[in-house]
# Entry
Amino acid sequence: MRIVVVGAGVGGLAAAARLAALGHAVTVLERATVTGGKCGLVELGGYRFDSGPSLLTMPWVFEELFAATGAPLDEELELVRVEPVTRYRFADGTGFDLGADLPPTLAALERWSRGAGTDWAAFMGACASMWPASLRYLSAPPPWPPRRPSPGEPSPHPLDLLRVRPWRTLRSLAKAHLRDPRLRLVAERFATYAGADPRRAPAALAAAGYVEHAFGAWHVAGGLHRLVEALARRVERLGGELRLETGARRIACAAGNGAALRVRAVETDAEAIECDAVVCGVDAQALFADLLARGSEGARGRREASRVLEAERSLSGFVLMLGLRGRTPELTHHTILFPADYDAEFDDVFRRRRPVEDPTLYLSASVATDPTQAPAGGENLFVLANAPTDGGGLHWDERAESYEAHLLERLAARGLDVRERIEVRARRTPADLERETGAPGGAIYGAAPHGRLRGSLERPGNSGRGIDGLHLVGGTVHPGGGLPLVALGARLVAEAIGPAA
# Structure
């Protein structure tokens, strides 16, 4: 089969590698000058910044991907364990380190707050009881809408839905197990791994953070973008074609079997590339709004398009990348600075739709693990604040400079005044993210997974409903965002297409 992959993010590249290994003729189209999508790289004066994900979890997913497509992962990349996973600091000045080594983590929590270690062990136990059901959900085609399993595909376990506690939000799950309200913030923050508000996010999102602290987190030596580069090399070694600076303008469809349509070609500014299948790795909203002509989706596709286009968008982020003279002794690879009022942050993002006055500050200094990421004696400090998406009366281009200054002031107020140490700097607003990756409004994860049950089940699936030959990958579709999940989605798509005849 001739297959066109639209978008050279991690999901698109992983799907392209698998499909090329299955014998298909694969062409990858990417509108940008580089591969990677949201898993980007910024280099400034010897400082290197991963501008998207800052760690790798569930490494076995990529070990299987590389083994299935050629040389093993350890011949391409070196994974370095990050321990502790994260240092947490609260508005009252207290804090602790959390890692994947449970006994010292529990002891540190007990020293910080009596009973906190016992509570965290109970919370991790609750997550562990949900994890097998969550993993089955993440590794299989989406359960919604209901369908018959394909031949050889295991049937869903009837108790899986109950095991993920669909009657709970993430906040209620945290409150049920964690007595200290500060420790609850740690658990509630896992909702942001899917771009959601913990007050409205399903309890199942606890799995996003659980994998870090149960199985560990890794840095890719040289930076996370090395993973992108390795995937791109794998695609080309398997005979796939990468076309950079070649954006898809439209996916053309023709009449198929019965009421369904079928993909016919992908149109660029220069040509129409005829194909038998399309794997779309762009944001699901962008697919339905821009790449598919309105009215061409068929009745089922129109319903799907309406649902996707009308969905509430996930949060975005305002990013500073700062190359600093000297090192900050108290910084680990990842540090979280929580505000005094966590609810106000989500009210600003989702209800008031304005820049957060006192945001949670996510700090990543990968030089703490990998000295190659900054000049000798320097520090590559990545600062992320949750932010509402661009548009709807909020124009980030007009606020970028003042909000950058505000975040530097907030850092100083938390005891980390770096303003006199800055050698190089860059920022990325939600508007920049939309321009760079095509994500509508700069939403990082597509639709926000809000709703106890709906938030888990109603993410767009991996096939274009009503259009034969259209497949979807990436962080805005099933099974979700984050490096391992988009790679699992790529495997699902490759399995659905199957080997070349």
Remarks:
- The longest strand covers residues 316-325.
- The first helix runs from residue 10 to 21.
- Residues 316-442 form one domain.
- The mean pLDDT is 93.
